[in-house]
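pasting for the record
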Amino acid sequence: MAGKRKTKQRFTHKMQIKLLAVFAFVLLALVILLVRITYIITTKGNTYAKQVLSQQSYDSQTIPYRRGEILDRNGVILAKSDRVYNLIMDCRAVNSDEDYIEPTIHALKEVYDLDETDLRNCLQNETTADSQYHILMKNISEEQKKAWEDYVSTDSDKKLSDEEIRERNNIQGIWFEEKYVRDYPYSTLASKVIGFSNDSGDGIAGIENYYDSLLKGTNGRTYGYLNSDDEYEKKTIEPEHGKKLTATLDMNVQEIVEKHIRQFDEEYGDEESNGKGAKNVAVLVMNPNNGEILSMASNSEFDLNNPYDLTDTYTGAQIKAMSDEEYSNALNERWSNFCVSSSYEPGSVVKPITVASALQVGAVTDGEHFYCDGYEFITDTRINCDNIYGHGDETLEYAIVNSCNDALMQIAMKMGISNFTAYQQLFGFGSRTGIDLPNETTGVIYTRDTMHEVELATCSFGQGFTCSMVQEAAAFSAAINGGYYYQPHVLKQVQDSEGTVEKTVTPLLLKQPVSSANSALIRRYITTAVQKGTGQKSQVPGYLTGGKTGTAEKIDPETGKRAKGKYLVSFIGACPMDDPQVLIYVIVDEPNVEDQADSSYPQVLFREIATEVFPYLGLYPTEDVTQTLLASLGLTEDDVVQGNASGKQTFNVYGSDGNYYYNCYIKDGTVVSSGGEPVDGCTVNEDGNVVDYYGNIIDITDTSAQKDDLDPVADNPDMASPPQELDDSGTGDRGTSWNGVTAEDLENN
């Protein structure tokens, strides 16, 4: 059976017509699209080109935040950020039209005196000719920026010729990059506490590092675009600036402390010691009743405005020869805060703490007697007292007064290892205090399991364990302030960038290691130690102080044995002894003298600092200054008067009661009289200067601002007679109310 024959499909005429129609339609669409594109390019091409260009040039510009200020407790600025600019040239923009080159170069020469050859090289060199970001100048001021803006301006009041206007309009490709640079007005003052921030805005040391997250802000941003009317518009998100921090530091106290440290270095330093009077000289001043640090300093402060400079310690050749690791270690050592980050054996300054602990556990009682024969045998180890001939019979009080190691070992044995180690921890040894500064050390103490009788004996008088200055200061404060252990701190207040207070730091009471009764006994003991014992050279004429000396023979790190002749000597003291308000702790580590085991060095330094600090802080002298005392200290009456006078940054003001107050000063941001009472009607303005009741502005940094400058009574320049009280109208004669000032006082003043 034959199969079916397949029919062949043909490309019919009808199909050809359909295909032609589709082709014609596509072709027509393409023609219409081409016509439309041509129309757009012809009519709005320039607009769209500008939009693309605007997105390239103005899409996003960062507005940097300002890092927060750091101030001292009196409002003195310690760290601030100044707005500056980098001068930027967009070489591609300048080269985009030959008409732009000469006017732009001429303007840069006129305004900034830039070298023409260098500018042309930037525009012609193949490596920079196409650059859109070429820095011409760094850190120029607001005034320098305004000078450029004034030059390129074509305002009608400048009366420029058409040619000059044309030239100004052809100045292209120059813009200013805004940024902030950190500035430290007092350079080296309190450098270890304040710290610094690097070029990236990161805190590196001190408060700058610890509170970096608060000091930092958030950058803002500017968006630019052309709107539907071809007009350039800008949207700005403002930056959030960093917080303003007020520290507990008092820069007047800090300046006094650092001045006396410098004087110590000048007296005992030499070329071999690189001008230092000791390997380390460090001083800590704090309020024992709340943990506020008023001053913290050492003899290795550095320039906060140039923190990477090591040339005062190393030669240029030595620095050049350093490896990266050696250079980094040298910088870290430079920035390290001895008072917080270094640990050492404290010596006898811990004896009052040992005795306070023994009293608290009932191991000893006030008036109990001990016999010192110059040593104790602990198991098979002989441990000597400082007085190898023995102190003989002495009470608990005189164990501290005479700084008797023998008696302290006996006291520790009465306590036992468990109690001793427990109270070391209660007083904060072996753990961080929590002070708000970076890199705090813990020190090293024995535990109940690792301590034995010999270690118990040596730790009782401050050898065999290590601590930091801030640990000892906090523990000593608790022993004398009624028994309360406060966390040391350096932050007092946080404000936003507009000055609104967000947080005021409340002193943090952590524990009460000893009772107020036992604390009172310790105050009595250390007062006697200064009056009659090892601390007599620390006496401050006019003031009743208490304190304790410390002499610790150092350990050679290479041998692990006592380094003969190497000592760390110290003194810690407070005032007034009925209610301690100020604590000063002084360390002299390896003094540059033949006999290092002499605690007189820190005692004298304590006395010199206290002589100025006590009156500045409003502490009244309560004791008679006898010639016998002055002779024993090697002082004259003039020395005492000068010390008291230099301790205050004083000024004279009128209060709202019409009285004239002499020798006032600023305390905690408030104007107070010489007796420490607030003077009503007087304020401290934003510049840190005082404004009294009558509107007189006193520049407290100007030592010539005396009463003559402030007296509204023009015919009485020498204040020979007192100002009168105002009558009811506020304009009459003044009476004779003088805030208790006598005629003799006026003559002396």
